[in-house]
Design a protein that fits this description.
single chain; about 280 residues; alpha+beta; five-stranded antiparallel sheet; two-stranded antiparallel sheet; about 50% helix; globular; DNA-binding
Length: about 280
DNA sequence: TGACAGGAAAATA
DNA sequence: TATTTTCCTGTC
């Protein structure tokens, strides 16, 4: 088994805790103060040492560039923050409180399936069901005595029995998940990656179980489209409280993208992080 | 233990 | 086209 170590210089603001806890990703674990995160065919072990971020891979080799991209360390957050604050000075306090949070760049296939799981569901339940799905598909990395399940490939998911899918207790989401597993694979999303924002969005909306909110999540976290602006109940409430805006999800999505421009996704995650930690005053 | 939390699709106007 | 209703599990 390959095992390489990267020391990522984090002299720019970076907070692993904020990045992993802001609702963009679900499947990480903390064991003895170290973070474990499955990515591609590798389990990443991540910890902060001195001012560096140390990342060990357990499984397939990764390029340092892939890890930097995964955690948004390639984003010029100083410029992004200035850009957002110029357009929306009322976010000053929220931007300050959120420093270190990065938008991750994950894999579109797993991002889409994960956010179909997220429909009308709280984060701990999403995590639990995704972990169970990972166990059913069976791909894992052993570390010490512990098995860490990777996110399943489409080929493994297609082999899961219908009776096992039932055990996930997906309720009305079950038919979305079954259709997704049956009809889509990683290549579908690879083919989309060179298309425009609007073309990707339109294609995502044809998937059963993907509406405006999930599509914006996939654009933002799966395709790196930093102008995407997912509107969930929290952002809905925040837009009314902070900006006096209300309306349908589609309308608020458009308003957010217009207001925050090229980096609406960062503005959205900052707002989400802030109100989940500090509430709406 | 019933109220509540959480988005997409289908139904309806 | 825009608004309302229905769907289901888990938590407290």
């Amino acid at each position: 088994m390959q095992n390489n170590i990267f020391f990522l210089n984090a002299n720019e603001p970076f907070s692993l805790a904020k990045t992993l806890n802001c609702g963009q990703t679900f499947r990480f674990e903390i064991v003895n103060g170290r973070y474990f995160y499955p990515f591609k065919n590798t389990l990443l072990e991540i910890y902060e040492s001195n001012k560096d971020l140390t990342v060990e891979t357990h499984g397939d080799d990764l390029q340092e560039r892939e890890i930097r991209n995964l955690f948004g360390l390639n984003h010029d957050v100083a410029s992004i923050n200035t850009y957002i604050e110029c357009r929306a000075p009322m976010l000053h306090e929220i931007i300050e409180a959120s420093k270190g949070l990065r938008i991750m760049r994950m894999l579109p296939y797993e991002t889409t399936l994960s956010f179909i799981f997220s429909i009308q569901t709280s984060i701990p339940i999403i995590r639990k069901r995704l972990n169970l799905l990972g166990e059913m598909a069976g791909d894992y990395v052993t570390l010490g005595r512990r098995k860490h399940y990777l996110f399943p490939k489409s080929t493994a998911l297609k082999k899961i029995q219908e009776s096992d899918i039932k055990l996930l207790h997906l309720g009305f989401r079950e038919r979305f998940v079954k259709e997704f597993i049956e009809n889509y694979d990683e290549q579908f999303f690879d083919k989309l990656s060179n298309k425009s924002f609007d073309e990707k969005r339109k294609a995502l909306l044809t998937i059963k179980g993907v509406g405006e909110k999930v599509a914006q999540c996939v654009l933002l976290f799966g395709f790196g489209e930093l102008s995407a602006f997912p509107v969930d109940v929290w952002i809905d409430r925040a837009m009314q409280a902070l900006l006096g805006l209300k309306g349908s999800t589609k309308k608020l999505t458009d308003e957010g993208r217009k207001l925050f421009g090229d980096y609406a996704g960062y503005a959205q995650e900052y707002i989400y992080y802030f109100i989940r930690v500090f509430g709406l005053s």
